[in-house]
Design a protein that fits this description.
Elements lengths: L7 E4 L4 H11 L3 H9 L5 H9 L2 H4 L9 H13 L4 E5 L3 H16 L5 E3 L12 H9 L4 E5 L6 H9 L3 E5 L13 E3 L15 H18 L15 H10 L6 H16 L3 H9 L9 H18 L3 H8 L3 H40 L4 E6 L6 H12 L3 E7 L2 E7 L6 H7 L6 E4 L3 E6 L4 H15 L8 E4 L1 E2 L7 H7 L14 E14 L2 E8 L2 E8 L12 E13 L2 E13 L2
Parallel strand pairs: 1-12, 2-3, 2-4, 4-5, 5-6, 7-8, 13-14, 16-18
Antiparallel strand pairs: 8-9, 9-11, 10-11, 14-15, 14-17, 15-16, 17-18
Helix pairs in contact: 1-2, 5-9, 6-9, 6-10, 6-14, 9-10, 10-11, 10-13, 12-15, 13-15, 14-15, 15-16
Length: 575
């Protein structure tokens, strides 16, 4: 690890008396109470909700969301009048999974929706008039957008002009003037009282389904049959929610706790086939397996081919069709990895040169022919390596498309606003964004972006901060402790795994292997194994040295025995 990227350790401070009261009132261990307190849980009811995550009692009403009534009423009218419904889903993972939820539900209640997913290269993000006209020509009177539409006022107005109603379901930041749709379902609307703003489009689509089932039940639609058990759609919702990297708190946490169980038992042909090609066995599915194995395969379709395949996969009743599409996604993922590796190599070389020669606070990297489908992933890799706000731009046919990733303390979209004169389009949020740019604007944009970074970020902020939840001794690292921590799962964005630290551990053994370094460490007579990935022989911690170690915890099973193992986050020589 380069010296300038050495992590800053910070043990989070807490009010120990308050932690003990919290533990006593909720019958929690002091350690779990401390971690929850550090994450902002101070209200007993909110904490019980977090720990229970009950679908029945912990989900707010969909009708707390602005325009939900109008959206549901228009869709119910279309269903009861046999009006043709079109679904327009974005090509990314939460757009395709959200569209799949709506298509599956509408089919289950007897409707026959059709769907459209724009091609990333040929059509680009959002709505376009030609595509909306095509849906109208296919007979649609109503189109529901998923994960797009909030910034397409002109396109929505044009659709209204040729007799097409739209319901917009989107989680991106809305503009000052909303599109003239029949309904705009977006929790970020200023007039929306829905308490949770963190859902992705897949979660919003599921909430629309909750509202639709309720209104259809009121209308007597199910009087001769059984209403769909919408919990069975949570396997799809979970794929979109975890892969889209929205915070796993609040509604999202409640949905995916049940959704992971649904993924484990799902008989949906597309899910079965996807798990098979990803090498995930039958049984419990973890958030990590979704994020690192299932999610990339779903995303690969929209990145290097055609995202509509994901909707086909998740809505088909044919095991044969599902297996064929899943295999195609596997091949697309291999292609994506190859493309990504080539772009990443060039981008990292540019970044290395920029940091070495220019002492940059930010990085703007660009290349001719860089595939737009991998730019966001590459930007994330550059941030991991150099810890600078990073924009990665690919120029194709004279047009530049870029993806950006940020670091703590730097709001990406605010920085884009400061550079707006050099950009054709931009959008996103605090930690990620996207843009369009002309080639002649690249250099002035890079300089303006650097100045925005220098105004905002100190030199100290250019080193990653490792926040630590508690200091433990190795004697405390037991399997009962692991059972305690299970109440906080699933871990992910917004609900990270707790990080602990131990001082003055002796390095007893060290073994470098292809993916990292394995250690055997001892403190006060107790030996613990640990591993760190992505480092090599230069990593500190030689046998006989005394070190401080920061880590997360994992269970290691070997020869029928289970033990606690350290997933090492950082290591330094003890003072």
């Amino acid at each position: 690890m380069p010296h300038d990227l050495a992590k800053r350790w910070r043990l989070k401070p807490s009010d120990e008396a308050a932690v003990q009261r919290f533990a006593d009132e909720l019958k929690l261990s002091p350690l779990i109470a401390r971690i929850l307190t550090l994450r902002g849980f101070i209200d007993n009811d909110a904490t019980r909700c977090y720990l229970s995550s009950s679908l029945r009692s912990d989900l707010p009403s969909p009708f707390d969301m602005a325009d939900m009534d109008a959206a549901v009423d228009r869709i119910v009218a279309a269903v009861t009048n046999n009006e043709q419904i079109g679904i327009w889903g974005d090509y990314d993972v939460d757009g395709t999974t959200g569209a799949s939820v709506l298509v599956s539900f509408l089919r289950e209640i007897g409707a026959k929706p059709f769907y459209h997913v724009p091609h990333r290269i040929e059509e680009g993000y959002g709505l376009n008039v030609e595509g909306l006209k095509a849906l109208k020509e296919r007979g649609a009177g109503l189109v529901i957008t998923v994960d797009c539409g909030i910034s397409n006022a002109k396109e929505v107005a044009a659709a209204n002009g040729f007799g097409l109603d739209l319901v917009v379901v989107d989680h991106h930041q809305p503009p000052e003037v909303l599109p003239p749709a029949v309904a705009v379902v977006n929790p970020h609307r200023k007039d929306c009282r829905f308490p949770d703003k963190g859902m992705c489009a897949a979660g919003l689509a599921f909430y629309l389904v909750i509202g639709l089932r309720a209104k259809l039940r009121e209308a007597g639609w199910f009087k001769h049959g059984v209403a769909p058990d919408i919990r069975h759609f949570l396997d799809i919702v979970t794929l979109g929610t975890i892969a889209d990297m929205v915070p796993l708190r609040g509604v999202n946490r409640t949905l995916i706790k049940r959704g992971l169980a649904e993924l484990g038992i799902s008989t949906r042909p597309g899910v079965v086939a996807l798990k098979k090609v990803a090498g995930i066995p039958d049984g419990d599915v973890t958030a990590g397996q979704v994020g690192f194995r299932l999610g990339p395969r779903i995303n690969a379709a929209g990145r290097v081919d055609y995202g509509i395949k994901v909707v086909e996969l998740l809505t088909t009743d044919s095991a044969e069709t599902a297996q064929r599409i899943a295999q195609e996604l596997e091949e697309h993922n291999l292609e994506r990895r190859s493309i990504e590796a080539a772009v990443q190599q060039q981008a990292l070389a540019q970044a290395e040169a920029a940091i070495t020669t220019g002492n940059r606070h930010s990085l703007v990297l660009a290349g001719e022919g860089w595939h737009p489908g991998v730019l966001g992933i590459v930007a994330s890799r550059v941030v991991e390596r150099f810890y600078r706000p990073t924009v990665v731009i690919g120029f194709n046919d004279g047009v530049g498309k870029g993806s950006a990733r940020s670091i703590r303390g730097f709001h990406m979209v605010e920085a884009f606003h400061a550079c707006a004169g050099h950009l054709d389009k931009f959008g996103g949020h605090e930690f990620a964004g996207g843009l369009s740019i002309r080639p002649e604007q690249l250099a002035p944009f890079a300089e303006a972006f650097e100045q925005a970074a220098r105004r905002t970020l100190s030199v100290e902020q250019l080193s990653p901060l490792l926040e630590i939840d508690a200091q433990l001794d190795f004697s405390q690292l037991t399997l009962p402790l692991m059972r305690e921590l299970e109440v906080m799962q699933p871990f992910g964005v917004g609900n990270p795994e707790p990080v602990f630290m131990t001082f003055n551990a002796e390095v007893c053994e060290r073994k470098v292997f292809s993916a990292g370094v394995r250690f055997r460490l001892r403190q006060d007579g107790k030996m613990v194994s640990g591993v760190i990935f992505g480092v090599g022989d230069e990593y500190p911690g030689q046998p006989g040295e005394s070190i401080d170690v920061a880590y997360r915890l994992a269970e290691n099973q070997w020869n029928g025995n289970t033990s606690v193992e350290l997933k090492i986050a950082d290591m330094r020589l003890a003072k």
